[in-house]
Amino acid sequence: MSSTALIDNLEHLPNPFTQFDAIKSHLLPAWPQLEKTDYSRDLQLALCFIYSYNGSQATFNSYRREVERLLLWAWLIKKSPTTHLRRDEIEEFIHFCISPPHEWIGIKNVARFKNKQGGRVANSEWRPFVAHVSKLKFRNGEAPEHKSHSLSQSAIRATFSILSSFFGFLIQEDAVQQNPVALIRQKSKFVKKEVTRRQVRRISNLQWDYVIETAEILADDDANMHERTLFIMNALLGMYLRISELVSDERSAPIMGDFIKDSDGHWWLKVLSKGNKERLVAVSDEMLSALKRYRKFRQLPLLPTIAEQTALIPKNRGQGAMTSTRQIRNIVQFCFDSAYQRMVDDGMKSDSEDLRVATVHWLRHTGISEDVKTRPKEHVREDAGHASMATTDRYIDTEYRERHASGRKKALRPK
């Protein structure tokens, strides 16, 4: 049985705490189950739980994805509201997510709902799961297929975590007596324990030299288009910024006034991190020089003034701040592609391959990995906004270098 989207985007979702009746009446034609009290209450609780995370678009989207999948599975497959599900049925649902039927899998990301005659209607092309191929395969012309769908270990962990939070909420609302997710004893059936640290994905120093040199060449050739590109590339690596920390959204609007000079004359960047936590990032001398160059191009004073409201990353066309993370991804990808081609042209194809699969986030990883070699890791942790030192420790390669050095000359024929 195919599925239809239930929950619209945040900007189109009325407050379910006060406007649930309007949401319900809009969905009733497609979902007659909502005539029944149990299903109606089920949806209202789910919406209220998800809506509570409206402070972060990314968090809202993640929680909506998992809870919506559970609602669809419970209603369409089990013919039951989620509040009636038992532990064994949650296990069944996890198995379903790992291997969903063909008709529940899409091969491209599409909107859940679309505009029609002044209203919002469910998009018939939307599916709860989406098959993907690697960036490199896609660039080589391979398209996603339904059979290529798979859930990563981190995705399965996220499913457990979010659903456990959801049932915890249902307990607080007296909708269920116990948390069926917490009752699953053998989560190891689904989530494998990692026996070693995952390697941090980063580009090499040589690749970065080509990338930033490419951005400089682009800026020199077409300043109106690419001075912004050069600043973005420096900021992503030099201050370990996440892509969401550069664009304006419902949580924050990064401005030049976020650069702050303290009483010692040191510069910092105030950033709103994940979880709506503010952090200060130390601005290096070279990053400050990059900022001055960018501001000079924008015909601003070389350094920001207190509480300056100028958008940090403006749109190329029109007024105001950039709001699209996709646009930044495209900018970074253009630099990666151009740098890759320059390396190939210089006879370094084997050294350039990572640039074909690298993503924006690799720049953050690269900046942290380099800094942790020379700076106290406590300082790097604060600048990166890591919740724990264990996260920062992932970037320290000394142990691996020493371990490999000690094992490099092991003999196959011991003497």
Please give a structural write-up.
The protein is mostly helical and 415 residues long. The chain folds into two domains: 10-189, no CATH class; 205-397, hpI Integrase, Chain A. 46% of the residues lie in helices and 6% in strands. The chain has 15 helices and seven strands. The chain has helices at 16-27, 37-51, 57-76, 87-98, 135-139, 153-172, 205-221, 223-238, 285-297, 325-345, 349-352, 361-371, 377-384, 389-393, 398-407; strands at 105-106, 113-116, 119-122, 129-130, 259-261, 267-272, 278-282. The strands form three sheets. It has a three-stranded antiparallel β-sheet. A two-stranded parallel sheet has the order 1-4. Strands 2-3 form a two-stranded antiparallel ribbon. α1 crosses α2, α2 runs antiparallel to α3 and α8 packs antiparallel against α9. The protein is globular.
CA-CA gap between termini: 66 Å
Major beta sheet, specifics?
3 strands, antiparallel
Tell me the CATH superfamily of the largest domain.
Intergrase catalytic core
Named at the architecture level, the CATH assignment of the largest domain is Orthogonal Bundle
Helix segment count? 15
Helix coverage percent of residues? 40-55%
User: How many distinct domains?
Assistant: 2
**Low-confidence regions:** none
